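thread from #wetlab-drylab

HS: before we spend reagent money on co-crystallization trials with LIB3CWND, can we at least see a predicted complex? here's what I'd submit
DV: go for it
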Amino acid sequence: MTLSRPLRSVLYIPASKERALEKARGLPCDAIIFDLEDAVAVDEKENARVLLGETLKTGVYGKRMKIVRINGFDSAWGKEDAAAVASMDADAVLLPKVESVAQLDALAAITGDMPIWAMMETPRGMMNAADIAAHPKMQGFVMGTNDLAKELNTRFRADRLPMMAGLGLCLLAARAEGIAAIDGVYNAFKDEDGLRAECEQGRDMGFDGKTLIHPAQLDVANECFAPSEAEADLARRQIEAFNAAEAAGEGVAVVDGKIVENLHIVTAKRILAQVEAIAEMA
Ligand SMILES: CC(C)(COP(=O)(O)OP(=O)(O)OC[C@H]1O[C@@H](n2cnc3c(N)ncnc32)[C@H](O)[C@@H]1OP(=O)(O)O)[C@@H](O)C(=O)NCCC(=O)NCCSC(=O)C[C@H](O)C(=O)O
Ligand SMILES: [Mg+2]
């Protein structure tokens, strides 16, 4: 299930927080994850589900993609969450701690045609990433780097070196199947420089965007995961030069001292399509 919309900034909102649900209607995020899982206290689980259903009925989130994260099926709420989401005005359902195709089949048996997203946040899930990505309802991976750190017993490091194997496996699987891949959250939500560094790293790796926990993180993610002016300008010049080379019967052009072949044109066109899609979000 391929998606062509921008997913630079994917904001978590605890579904129990009425003020945050309201505030998000005016925030510049590409997608929202309405959370019924970890951000909602046990005593609030059922109220949050009802509040979310009512809130989504009002349909005021505009072009922002609406994803609902349910509780796992090993919890007391998972199955009821899934049944409720199936009739909500949501674009996709997000299942936490996905480790097997069987879990996805069980969810799809309840949510029907609704696209599924998977939280990739356990070692077993990452080892099975290829099969999970290939599920017919799968539309995107969200990295759960907090759970992954817990499971691996790693320390949080600025370079995220201990997580690279898991993140890389998920990216490979996502790209092999043409689904979205969104990086994990940056917990220190007041540390803009740290967030920027992690967004740049995620973008360099190939992620489509970053999950965020606070509105203050939106601008940095939107900037880092969008093509820069320089990238867009280069893409246009590469396409122009390649078209001219082809017209002259040649298969290679040179731009800024570097070769441009048809594979670079695929990337250039993708960059320009992204620029257009981002402009349409405004
Ligand atoms: C982190 C927070 C608890 C901070 O909350 P708070 O102290 O209330 O923040 P502020 O006072 O600075 O808030 C300013 C205004 O912004 C609104 N707000 C805050 N957060 C959000 C949000 N996420 N979405 C929309 N709006 C938000 C406040 O309502 C204030 O509005 P106003 O009244 O107009 O001033 C809080 O930000 C928070 O709860 N964040 C989300 C936490 C969350 O969702 N966690 C779960 C996802 S992370 C995870 O589980 C990842 C994964 O599974 C893994 O394993 O890694
Ligand atoms: Mg998690």
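DV: Residues 38, 96, 119, 121, 144, 146-147 surround magnesium ion (ligand 2) (CB under 6 Å).
HS: ok that's useful, forwarding to the group
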